[in-house]
């Protein structure tokens, strides 16, 4: 069944039909299509455009179709152009003439705009739940490792000592912003396009506010042309998904590095690792690598829809059908990545001893040694040079700053005294950084409490 055809004298070429049809992918939102149709006919009956008898027949018929699709007794078939024509054809077959009145006062343009919004809104809710689940796991790691010392890096070079809680907290901030972005998109898109018709509204006395209320929108859209031509919310969503994918990729990159024999900071659980077909000793971080790789796929969806939309005049054009497959794929990809990454993090073990040894052996306390000299009256530029000499001495002897004798310190600068060892201990280096946002334990405890309240809210 087609929802058009009266002015045509020839059947559509089969290749044209196949190229034009969207049912192979838009069947994904059959639930939203039926939900929107039920709200539409309830509004039509309220306005006296349909009888209550027609309303009840249509609503009951649609509920039966939804039930049969969900339990598998009804299958969506390819001879229909799209999910809208499929539902209407089955409805008319089941309830007769009343089914033909379902489409009164609407167009496929505002119908598909509604379906895509309903689907996207539902998916944003699921994505937000997955991001919150990841934030919850990250917070657990932070609470457990508030005193796990490790090197902080710049340029992938060891820089200053921090804690694992502080490092993980940086990713908490990233994913918290992702959660906020999803919430913003949901709020901004939550206006109902149904009733906009093809582009210019309709002569029927629709109550668009009532339809919007039934479907959980904040109100109706205010311009019928924009209503059917708008895909900004999808571009925003794909941008947010690309950012989530980028954050996951960055984190995976670090886990991959930390998992190497050279670092050994983490041990990825066997259930999230794979082996080699030829090298029996291998335990590969394939899940982390795959998540890292999926980012490009999500970016591709964003670039694709931006390119599609950039040259489209108002109002609806068939090009816009290209929004669905790539959006569906990007959503499913990011949902899968979030679920897998959360599972990998929750089962991963962290090598506290190796992390602490790495911080000690990487001269991450060199800045604090310079600060020690400054606090004893040495100008910073001179202190910087003196500590550079200390580091060179340690490199030549293969030791850490902590391993130098006081005599060796004094040979380079007589300012050093016994208290230098306390000043450059990892505990001191970390704990004296007490400003909010720093890795000191008291500062981290305050931040963790803030995060807890965010998650509770």
Helix/strand/pairing category: mainly alpha
- Chain oligomer state: single chain
SSE order, one letter for each helix or strand: HHHHHHEEHHHHEHHEHHHHHHH
Residue share in helices? 55-70%
Quickly count the domains: 3
Secondary-structure arrangement, i.e. CATH architecture of the largest domain? Up-down Bundle
Mean pLDDT, all residues: 93
The level 1 CATH classification of the largest domain is Mainly Alpha
CATH topology of the largest domain: Fumarase C, Chain A, domain 2
Number of strands: 4
The major pleated sheet works out as: 2 strands, antiparallel
Indicate the radius of gyration in whole angstroms. Answer: 31 Å
What is the name of the CATH superfamily of the largest domain? Fumarase/aspartase (Central domain)
Percent of sequence in beta strands? under 5%
Q: Which sequence of strands runs across the widest sheet?
A: 1-2
Distance between the termini: 49 Å
Low-confidence stretches: none
Please tell me about this protein's structure.
With 457 residues, the chain is mostly helical. The chain folds into 3 domains: 14-104, Fumarase C, Chain B, domain 1 (Orthogonal Bundle), CATH 1.10.275.10; 113-204 and 215-351, Fumarase C, Chain A, domain 2 (Up-down Bundle); 358-456, Ribonucleotide Reductase Protein R1, domain 1, CATH 1.10.40. It contains 19 helices and 4 strands. Strands 1-2 form a two-stranded antiparallel sheet. The chain has a two-stranded antiparallel sheet with strand order 3-4. Helix 6 packs parallel to helix 12 (323-347) and helix 7 runs antiparallel to helix 10. The longest helix is centred in the N-terminal third of the chain and has 37 residues, at 108-144. It is elongated. 38% of the residues are buried. The model has no long low-confidence stretch (mean pLDDT 93).
């Amino acid at each position: 069944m087609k929802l058009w055809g009266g002015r045509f004298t020839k059947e559509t070429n089969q290749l044209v039909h196949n190229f034009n049809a969207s049912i192979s992918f838009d069947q994904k939102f059959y639930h939203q299509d039926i939900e929107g149709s039920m709200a539409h006919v309830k509004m039509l009956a309220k306005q006296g455009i349909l009888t209550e008898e027609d309303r009840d027949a249509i609503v009951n018929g649609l509920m039966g179709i939804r039930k049969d699709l969900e339990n598998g007794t009804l299958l969506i078939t390819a001879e229909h152009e799209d999910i809208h024509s499929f539902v209407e054809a089955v409805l008319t077959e089941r309830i007769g003439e009343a089914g033909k009145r379902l489409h009164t006062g609407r167009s496929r343009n505002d119908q598909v705009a509604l379906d895509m919004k309903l689907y996207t809104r539902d998916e944003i809710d699921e994505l937000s739940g997955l991001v919150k689940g990841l934030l919850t796991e990250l917070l657990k790691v932070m609470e457990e490792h508030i005193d796990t010392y490790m090197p902080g890096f710049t340029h992938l070079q060891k820089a200053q000592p921090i804690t694992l809680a502080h490092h993980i907290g940086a990713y908490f901030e990233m994913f918290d912003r992702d959660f906020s972005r999803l919430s913003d998109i949901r709020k901004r898109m939550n206006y109902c396009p149904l009733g906009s018709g093809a582009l210019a509204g309709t002569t029927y006395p629709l109550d668009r506010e009532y339809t919007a209320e039934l479907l959980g929108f904040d109100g109706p859209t205010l311009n019928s042309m924009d209503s059917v031509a708008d895909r900004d919310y999808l571009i925003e969503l794909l941008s947010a998904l690309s950012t989530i994918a980028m954050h996951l990729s960055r984190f995976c990159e670090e886990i991959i590095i930390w998992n190497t024999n050279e670092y050994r900071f983490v041990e990825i659980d066997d259930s999230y690792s794979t082996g080699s077909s030829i090298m029996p000793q291998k335990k590969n971080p394939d899940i982390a690598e795959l998540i890292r790789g999926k980012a490009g796929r999500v970016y591709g969806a964003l670039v694709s829809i931006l390119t599609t939309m950039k040259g489209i005049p108002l109002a609806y054009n068939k090009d816009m059908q290209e929004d669905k497959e790539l959006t569906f794929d990007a959503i499913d990809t990011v949902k899968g990545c979030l679920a897998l990454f959360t599972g990998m993090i929750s089962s991963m073990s962290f090598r506290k001893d190796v992390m602490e040894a790495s911080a000690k052996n990487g001269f991450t306390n060199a800045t604090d040694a310079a600060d020690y000299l400054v606090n004893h009256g040495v100008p910073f530029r001179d202190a910087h040079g003196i500590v550079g000499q200390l580091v060179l001495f340690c490199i030549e002897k293969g030791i850490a700053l902590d391993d130098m004798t006081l005599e060796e310190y004094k040979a380079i600068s007589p300012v050093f005294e016994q208290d230098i060892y306390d000043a450059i201990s990892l505990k001191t280096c970390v704990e004296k950084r007490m400003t909010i946002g720093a890795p000191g334990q008291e500062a981290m405890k305050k931040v963790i409490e803030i995060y807890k309240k965010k998650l509770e809210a």
